[in-house]
């Protein structure tokens, strides 16, 4: 899925230095120009393949570490020192640049075909000042499909996260109740998903939903008490086909200044993900099978089945050079 926006890093992480980043095996580096505008360029000089991130920043440009060619934020070469300052620049002296946008505290990069850039939809909690966001990052040796499905999967909770769902919990799943649109799958989770369940939150007191937004965003929202809510946001970035970086936010709209809650919520999220990791990393095949008959499904897997249908359709469209997933 190349024609999509993926998180490269937190906005706050890109300051004065260049930052290396890989998205779907495309090696990039990011930097900010003198105005603070972020740029994402391929990390390979068109002259002799040097790693541009080993070079230097000079004003709005980057200088290659090998022979000093200078490139601007659009990837255009502006100076070849060995030819002197007045020489013309060969046509091919360009570095591929990728569209970048900053939203919800992240830098998003589009590594696909630039004319297929689409709008990025984010959950409102990422930009609402009422919400406190505690960031975390984890990396798994897993394919994006298996990670998405593990979050959509309510029947694994008593087995992978027993302490979160309770020791004597009945593993029978009611439903789950869910809805699907072109871009989204929304599940009403019962029992509550452990990413958002806390001792403050008992099952009868509210509801918990898991929302997947195509192709790589998940948010788990839980009502706490009297309008207070907690949420866990996950943005999945495939570093390669087999490795994923999960940029997460532990979110809440109450006691925003209480640092102790930051720590508890952070620990909770990282711990729960670490319970999933060894299981999800060893699933085979690494990518969820596109043929539905290749694995056995039961009723509680219905949201994952819908995801596979969505994924397969988008992949077919991308392979045909079509519009990809539109909604
Ligand atoms: S390899 Fe970059 S200038 Fe020669
Ligand atoms: Fe899990």
TrEMBL record:
Chain ranges of the Rieske domain: 5-109
Q: Which InterPro entries has this protein been placed in?
A: Cholesterol_7-desaturase (IPR050584), Rieske_2Fe-2S (IPR017941), Rieske_2Fe-2S_sf (IPR036922), VanA_C_cat (IPR044043)
Q: List GO molecular-function terms, semicolon-separated.
A: 2 iron, 2 sulfur cluster binding; metal ion binding; monooxygenase activity; oxidoreductase activity, acting on paired donors, with incorporation or reduction of molecular oxygen
| Pfam families given in the database record | Rieske (PF00355), VanA_C (PF19112)
Please provide the record's keywords in A-Z order. 2Fe-2S, Iron, Iron-sulfur, Metal-binding, Oxidoreductase
Q: Which PANTHER family does UniProt cross-reference here?
A: 3-KETOSTEROID-9-ALPHA-MONOOXYGENASE, OXYGENASE COMPONENT, IRON-SULFUR DOMAIN CONTAINING PROTEIN
What is this protein's name?
Rieske domain-containing protein
Source organism per UniProt: Tumebacillus avium
């Amino acid at each position: 899925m190349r024609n999509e926006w993926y998180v490269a890093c937190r906005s706050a992480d890109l300051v004065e230095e260049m930052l290396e980043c890989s998205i779907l095996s495309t090696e990039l580096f990011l930097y900010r120009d003198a105005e603070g505008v972020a740029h994402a360029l391929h990390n390979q000089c068109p002259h002799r393949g040097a790693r541009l991130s080993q070079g230097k920043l000079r004003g709005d440009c980057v200088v290659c570490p090998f022979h000093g060619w200078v490139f601007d934020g659009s990837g255009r070469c502006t100076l070849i020192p060995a030819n002197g300052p007045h020489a013309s620049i060969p046509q091919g002296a360009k570095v591929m640049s990728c569209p970048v946008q900053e939203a919800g505290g992240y830098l998003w990069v589009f590594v696909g075909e630039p004319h297929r850039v689409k709008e990025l939809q984010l959950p409102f909690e990422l930009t609402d000042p009422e919400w406190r966001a505690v960031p975390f990052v984890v990396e798994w040796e897993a394919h994006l499909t298996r990670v998405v499905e593990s979050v959509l999967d309510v029947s694994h909770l008593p087995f992978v996260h027993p302490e979160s769902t309770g020791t004597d919990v009945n593993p029978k799943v009611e439903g789950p109740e869910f809805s699907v649109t072109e871009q989204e799958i929304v599940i009403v989770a019962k029992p509550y998903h452990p990413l958002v369940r806390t001792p403050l939150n008992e099952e009868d007191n509210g509801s918990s939903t898991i929302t997947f937004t195509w192709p790589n965003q998940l948010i788990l929202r839980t009502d706490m008490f009297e309008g207070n809510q907690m949420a866990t946001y996950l943005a999945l970035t495939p570093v390669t086909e087999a490795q994923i970086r999960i940029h997460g936010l532990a979110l809440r709209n109450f006691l925003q200044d209480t640092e102790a809650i930051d720590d508890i919520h952070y620990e909770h999220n990282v711990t729960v993900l670490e319970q999933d990791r060894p299981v999800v990393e060893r699933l085979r095949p690494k990518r969820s099978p596109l043929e539905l008959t290749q694995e056995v499904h039961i009723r509680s897997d219905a949201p994952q089945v819908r995801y596979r249908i969505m994924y397969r359709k988008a992949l077919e469209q991308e392979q045909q050079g079509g519009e990809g997933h539109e909604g």
